Amino acid sequence: MEHILTINSRQIDQNELLPLLGQYLMLPQLAKEVIIADATKVVECTEEEKQVARERFLEENQLKNDTELQQWLNRTGVGPEQLQELTLRKLKVEKFKEQTWGDQLEIYFMKRKRDLDQVVYSLIRTKKPGLAQEIYFRILEGESDFKELASKYSEGVEAQTQGIIGPVELSSPHPQIAQALVNSQPGKLFEPMRIGEWIVIIRLENIIPARLDKSTARRLLDELFQQWLKEQMTNNVSFFSNEQVNKTEIEH
Question: Which domains are assigned to the chain?
Answer without folding.
Answer: 3-104+221-251 (no CATH), 118-208 (3.10.50.40)
